[in-house]
């Protein structure tokens, strides 16, 4: 009896594993390809196939403490690696999307124009208090939605599309940074010579929710967004973007990064090689003031203001100290020139 039970178990196991092998090989054939432009074509949904909507500049207008922000959801090719264009789901044709800067105490009147003909999109600002089902509601294809929020907490915050499945929308490119400047500033404001917005995000196989859910990222990247047009490159999340267009500073200048990790899945261990971070404000809140940090941990959706001074001429790299991600692109460079 014992033996026949075991035989039955073995036979069942064999049949099951044969079936599973068959199922797995099907899945392998259909779902787990290496990345190439040709194969990525497969996952582009039909209404997006011939779309490459030109970037639309965000509209930001201020009237006293009221800030009117208009952005688009749109489908735009983003070069995420050399000669590799990803048909990204974006805000305004950038990935990460444009940086938004408001002041603590502002009222944000936010309008999302959804230029995507096929899929609803939405906006989830981490900088505000609101009931998500109404405040972050979906905007249907070819429609507009307007939402009003108070920005009462200073910091460096993530924003992202919050439409289901959220992972697809973020991993396909719909994320960015909103900075809420503290009403009383940071205690170190007077020391700062240069400011940059630096963002980390990762990419997966094109529009493949299975890959996004279960696998390692294909690329991990840094981008920068312009705060001051004259001294800062404005890039997408492209491998090597901040190596090819390094940040510039001078010996002895105090540099501030508004830093954020979009994920969607991975942690960032942000580190500037060859220096110590003198002042760090976790999530960009002046109250969260830390001194003398070697590495700043940024969870997925975490932010920080970091400040440091490079004391010698040279080329300094910044990385996430998870070096497997550096191998996939997560590095940038600062060129430091003499005074
Ligand atoms: Cu979306």
UniProtKB/TrEMBL annotation:
Its cofactor is Cu(+); Cu(2+). Residues 76-183 form the Plastocyanin-like domain. It catalyses: nitric oxide + Fe(III)-[cytochrome c] + H2O = Fe(II)-[cytochrome c] + nitrite + 2 H(+). It comes from Oceanobacillus longus. Keywords: Copper, Metal-binding, Oxidoreductase, Repeat, Signal. Residues 1-23 form the signal peptide. The keyword Transcription regulation does not apply. This is Copper-containing nitrite reductase. The keyword Lipoprotein does not apply. It comes from the Bacteria. SUPFAM superfamilies: Cupredoxins (SSF49503). It is an enzyme of class 1 (oxidoreductase). Gene3D superfamilies: Cupredoxins - blue copper proteins (2.60.40.420). Belongs to the multicopper oxidase family. Homotrimer. Its EC number is 1.7.2.1. Pfam families: Cu-oxidase_3.
